[in-house]
Design brief:
The complex is a heteropentamer, with 2 copies of chain A (350 residues), 1 copy of chain B (243 residues) and 2 copies of chain C (275 residues). Chain A contains 9 helices and 19 strands. Chain A is of the alpha+beta class and 350 residues long. Classes of the chains: A alpha+beta (350), B alpha/beta (243), C mainly alpha (275). The complex binds adenosine-5'-triphosphate (2 copies) and magnesium ion (2 copies).
Chain lengths: 350, 243, 275, 275, 350
């Protein structure tokens, strides 16, 4: 039950060219900015869009092979899909929406209803079992869409932001449930999400797509520790810099220099966590070996801390407590000194 | 009507005739033929007469396309001719009644119409039949005979359409058949005019070659010419052809 | 002129739309007035006293039954074969769809009597298809009740097809995508997703089709003839009555109207009131 | 029986649906065969040699022009007043909507000749509304081209209304909510949101309406009469020809068909091909 | 430009009864589980749903007053609204969608286009300016919806999850832009969001709604520090317990006892952060005064840490590092000891 796909398709001005390998039981998360082509890739895998080139194989069977003129119709693919805008059938009740795929794949009415009813309960939808989609809230609709895709026991599961409309509590439950289900699930799963927590919790493999191309592949931990693009760095809350390492000093592309923990040579990325950045009104004299002047470009409350965007030789983000912020008088345009311990700075080959 | 069909041409009245006789008749004959049919059935207990009333042209189309019919009564000799030309008629069609034109005006004669000359008055609303249909052709002949150029506002496709407009007072005068004036009752008034004899419309009737029931059919055609039949036709305002 | 309507604030339906803007109300009122006025005039003119006796004649009852039955059958046939054709026109990638659609609109424009002639030429005893059929089996269509149904279907089906095609084009096709990912083939998607989504459009098409079949005259009298009991529908009865007794014709028309309004009223409550 | 269609794999449209399931293709093919066969028989029978001379007569050209112009005017009027009425039927909370809808379906079922009589009773020289109008202004409708348009409108407008109402009911009303939050009143929402959303349905309704108006016979001849140049439409010409020369009638019908198919073909490409 | 609303409406089996006060320039965030009635409240404020009772007043003008029979039509309300499923007009291009409201409110075609074009640029949609909604990605569609609502310069802004489909990068940008815009905005804003970060970053006031009722009101910091319901506690990542304080000891409702930092008396809530919970294989002897036995009920990777759900006398959530988890052998059902320093436990009046 492994998926091997190379998707090449043109969408308006965007050329998508993405290759994926998903082993049986594995969950691959597709991450990327809006309009990167993530949904497009899922549509190709589902058979709803026709690739111009490439190859889509599931368990060794070709689903799409434009060169050989092979193309399996969407309804013959053993898939389940959650759409970004749900697309629940407006004329069917919750339970009938969920039972639809089972009926389509040949279950008897009674059997389909039994299974669907189980999903209704599992998704905490019992109160809305006979409600029409119009009268469901956004989160309820998303749970119905998820149940509908899962109920058919697909071999390839395609999920386009399956948790985005769920409230915090339900998201935890559904995420855990999904994790549980995906754990038992022998097939391949491709998941589009914008939430790094979802990716961490659910995915074995992360593929980052930007402008239709794959820019980084790895496990969630690898990717979040060593982001290779600004997009991913932002996503996992890091500041990303790039430069050339000369031993434990890295010469940044813009000319500044950063001291790092481990020695290396050649082009590297440097990642700095906002929490490890200290801010001072005057140049500090302590142990940190990295000290730069900077200007406050923005302050955003972020939970109980404030996230401060800094401009300067080294663009950084710093997390500070409200007390510290008040003391530092962090208004827009204020000048500050930022310092980071060399031991807190990760450098890795670019 | 479950008896086997009679074969050969028996003489009506002597041999027992039975079965169904199918008559295709012009729509303007609806009333008279319904009465005729009832009378005929009363005399011939085993015969059922079935009528198909429609425009003569429609009936001719149906017949040339193979309709199973015994008798065709047309309101137009020209239409009958198309069936004759198609070789579907046994003998020469007979003209069993004739009809002449009458001026018809709404009750009370609001346009003060007195004769055919008023049809040249452009201030009056005048309806005539179109020249393509028999009553229109007849109208053309009477105006020619009278040396008049009528000023019609509409050239209707059939008598019925003309009559409706007269009944509702939409037209001040029109030319239709005497039988129609009679049938329309009190809503209209008929005015005789001298040139009417110039245009006599013939109603031919004929036996069809492919008749499934020629015996009974012939009996029915004879019945229309019998005194009982002529009574009914005359009462409706038809003229009986001489000879 | 006052249209016979009054605006009510909806109390039962909190999301409800109330009030009709003048820019819509005024033309709508004109439309109603234009459609209703002639009918009102007809009602005034109708010979109410003779209505009862007219209705009690067996011929009229036969004609009425025949009309309703044949129009309903024609609608049924049109639904069964016409809705799929509408789908093909709206959704498929078949070559020559444009030509197909043009052909389908033909019976709309053909004068009905000519349509009847065409049916005779095709299916009559001497017809292109009718002749071999007749010589092989002895079966011929004209002058039978079947012919009435066929004539009505020929004339009325295009109304259904065009109307349903319009609905199909306006429908959101992404639901069909969703059905496909759930394993539903074209046929099941059509039956369980597309059709329910466009149900109001199909209902509207069926109403048009039924009404057109019920009012059919020219093709019926030409192809099926005008035999009491088997092919004389209510419209043919009206035609004959016009020849002899126009008031009776009006009365018969009103009977036809009453029946059709009742039928449509009952059906519509079930079909259309789901939005 | 083979329908005159062939299935093509779509190359140009990657999301496209290809292939038609048999459960749809077979009934669709039957529908096409049933609609096309009589037409084919008509084409075979048509007097091709005389077609040219027929077409060149000024009467025929006048009749054709009158038909197209009057049917188009009738459709225009129907759009202007009928679409708002459809909106009222589908969307408003007006009391007595059911009765209104029933009244609108009346002209669908009324035998056209009776419809013509009703129009005379209402708008004729002695009509309920026509009489005061005539005595006040000297204007009367019958026997004018206006009457042709009115008769066609009366008979054809209900097709538009029912069809558009069906589309309105199938449309997603939440877009209208969105328009309201953006400050658009009912009228603007109708014009800029609702109408574009149901455009395919309106187009379908307009096609039905136009075609029905083009084929109108009974109401026209009864209400407007039949005078060359002013009220004799192509259909009336066909019926007259049927009386004397059925072949000429067929030829004239084919001319009417050709014109309507051309017109619809041109319009449809613009109107409907937007999905 | 202040909003004062009391919304009473029945939706299926859910009775909604929510009162809100939003001062000029203030942003109120509505938080709550799926199906709590948040979107319903927005629909009432917009005039799209009719309240059964209550009162909606904007700047002293009654928009809804069922008792007095007053009801202002939606299009006469000076509002802007973003819908949960966008509802972009499918037949209009991006720029025409945005210009729609301006045109509806009387701008000339040219003026509307100028303003709309500015929004297109601001939302980074220039490439898609003439695209139809069908060909937009989910995030692009959401930005168009946002621009459409903002372009009309409404006096009351209603946003139903305006940032949920945005990718991390765009979300930062749009959030900052929105913050900026809301800062300049003199009117009242009601925002529905499931993302605590959005609420923290954007809202001045937080109203938590559960099952149609308001359960907590406060500033984002107050609410996140002192959650009063399990839903909110989960949302901000705390474990919530309730009990009665007797000095520095709190007797929980289930019989267990917790030592807290500050003395108080009477019914209290107790909040514990997952990061402050230590796990041990055997009973620890150190300084923490709160030590309880527990069973592992679930383990979810959460970024670089693992989130461990614990069952026992005191239900808790603990964050541990993967190394610690491996060492502790945290399989489902494993028995562990959980400890929390009294100084890490916050208690506040219930
Ligand atoms: N049918 C279409 N025609 C033309 N362009 C399209 C079509 N569908 C999508 N696009 C364009 O292709 C690009 C990729 O779209 P896609 O929906 O795959 O993005 P995405 O990665 O899913 O983004 P998001 O996270 O916002 O959902 C977008 O720029 C979009 O505008
Ligand atoms: N038109 C309706 N008819 C009946 N019930 C409805 C209708 N609309 C919503 N509901 C019900 O009302 C409740 C509240 O719905 P609402 O959309 O306001 O929730 P919500 O708080 O926005 O949830 P979410 O976060 O999931 O979007 C839900 O249980 C929903 O099923
Ligand atoms: Mg997407
Ligand atoms: Mg909601």
């Amino acid at each position: 039950m492994s998926l091997s796909a190379h998707v090449v398709i043109q969408r308006g001005s965007l050329g998508v060219d993405v290759a994926l390998e998903v082993k049986p039981g594995e969950v691959l998360a597709l991450l990327g900015p809006n309009g990167a082509g993530k949904s497009t890739v899922l549509r190709v895998l589902a058979g709803l869009a026709r690739p111009h080139a490439g190859l889509v194989r599931l368990d060794g069977q070709s689903l799409d092979d434009p060169a050989a003129g092979i193309r399996l119709a969407p309804h013959r693919r053993p898939i389940g899909m959650v759409f970004q805008d749900h697309l629940l059938f407006p004329h069917l009740s919750t339970v009938d929406n969920i039972a639809f795929g089972l009926r389509a794949r040949g279950s008897s009415r009674a059997a389909a209803h039994t299974v669907a009813a189980r999903w209704v309960a599992r998704m905490h939808l019992s109160e809305h079992s006979s409600a029409k989609p119009r009268s469901l809230s956004g989160g309820q609709a998303q749970r119905v869409a998820l149940a509908r895709a899962l109920a058919g026991d697909p071999r390839l599961l395609l999920l386009d932001e399956p948790l985005s409309a769920l409230d915090a509590r339900t998201k935890l439950d559904v995420r855990a449930d999904l994790r549980h289900h995906l754990g038992d699930f022998a097939g391949a799963t491709v998941l589009v999400t914008h939430d790094p927590v979802d990716a961490m919790a659910l995915a074995d493999q992360l593929v980052v797509v930007e402008r239709g191309r794959v820019v980084q592949v790895g496990t969630p931990v690898e990717v979040s520790r060593r982001p290779r693009t600004d997009y991913v760095a932002r996503l996992v809350g890091l500041s990303l810099l790039s430069g050339t390492a000369h031993g434990r000093a890295v010469l940044l592309d813009n000319g500044a220099s950063v001291q790092v923990a481990e020695a290396s040579n050649g082009p590297v990325f440097v990642a700095i966590r906002p929490a490890s950045v200290g801010l001072y009104r005057s140049r500090p004299d302590g142990s940190p070996r990295n000290v730069w002047p900077a200007t406050v470009a923005g302050v955003t409350p972020y939970g109980e801390t404030l996230r401060v965007d800094l401009e300067g030789e080294v663009p950084l983000t710093a997390d500070v407590s409200p007390e510290a912020a008040a003391e530092l008088d962090l208004v827009l345009g204020a000048g500050v000194w930022a310092s980071v311990k060399a031991s807190e700075v990760a450098a890795y080959p670019a | 009507a479950s008896d086997p069909p009679t074969t050969g041409a028996g003489t009506a009245g002597e041999e027992r005739i039975s079965e169904t006789v199918t008559v295709f008749a012009a729509a303007s004959l609806t009333d008279v033929f319904t009465v005729l049919g009832d009378r005929f059935e009363a005399e011939h207990q085993d015969v059922t007469v079935v009528f198909n009333f429609a425009a003569s042209s429609t009936l001719a189309q149906q017949i040339t396309q193979g309709a199973p019919v015994d008798v065709f009564a047309s309101a137009s000799a020209a239409t009958m001719q198309t069936v004759v030309d198609a070789g579907l008629i046994v003998a020469e069609p007979e003209v069993f009644v004739q009809n002449t034109l009458q001026i018809v005006v709404p009750a009370g004669n609001p346009g003060a119409v007195t004769g055919l000359e008023d049809f040249t008055n452009p201030d009056l609303i005048i309806a005539l039949c179109s020249a393509e249909v028999p009553c229109g052709a007849a109208a053309v002949r009477v105006f020619e005979a009278g040396g008049l150029t009528p000023q019609p506002d509409t050239l209707e496709q059939d008598v019925r359409a003309v009559l409706t407009k007269v009944e509702l007072g939409e037209v001040d005068a029109a030319l239709v058949y005497r039988t129609d004036v009679l049938a329309a009752g009190e809503a209209v008034e008929g005015i005789e005019f001298s040139q009417s004899s110039e245009a006599v419309n013939d109603y031919p009737i004929a036996l069809l070659a492919g008749s499934p029931n020629p015996g009974a059919a012939a009996a029915l055609v004879e019945f229309t010419a019998s005194p009982a039949g002529l009574d009914v036709l005359a009462a409706a305002g038809f003229q009986i052809p001489e000879g | 002129m006052n249209a016979p309507v009054s605006v009510r604030q909806s109390r039962s339906q909190p999301d409800g739309a109330t009030g009709v803007p003048a820019i819509l109300l005024i033309p709508a009122a004109i439309a109603v007035a234009f459609l209703v006025l002639p009918l009102a005039a007809l009602l005034v003119r109708a010979p109410w006293s003779t209505l009862g006796s007219l209705l009690s004649t067996p011929e009229v009852r036969d004609a009425l039954r025949l009309s309703v039955v044949s129009a309903s059958l024609a609608t049924l046939i049109s639904l069964v074969v016409g809705v799929p054709l509408a789908w093909v026109l709206a959704r498929s990638q078949i070559r020559g769809r444009g030509v197909l659609r043009a052909l389908v609109t033909v019976p709309l424009v053909l004068p009905p009597v000519v349509g009847g002639v065409a049916l005779l030429l095709a299916l009559g005893r001497r017809g292109v298809l009718g002749e071999p059929l007749y010589s092989a089996t002895g079966v011929s269509f004209p002058f039978t009740t079947t012919a009435v149904v066929l004539a009505q279907t020929f004339v009325a089906m295009p109304f259904l097809i065009i109307s349903v095609e319009g609905s199909l084009r306006a429908a959101d096709r992404r639901y069909e995508d969703a059905a496909a990912t759930l394993g539903a083939g074209r046929a099941m998607t059509f039956r369980r997703v597309t059709l329910p989504l466009i149900a109001p459009g199909v209902a509207a098409g069926a109403v048009l089709c039924w009404a057109r079949a019920l009012g059919e005259f020219g093709a019926t009298i030409t192809f099926a003839g005008n035999f009491p009991g088997t092919t004389r529908t209510m419209t043919l009865q009206v035609y004959l009555a016009l020849e002899t007794d126009p008031d009776a014709a009006i009365a018969l028309s009103l009977v036809l109207l009453a029946v059709s309004i009742l039928t449509l009223g009952l059906l519509r409550d079930r079909w259309l009131m789901r939005t």
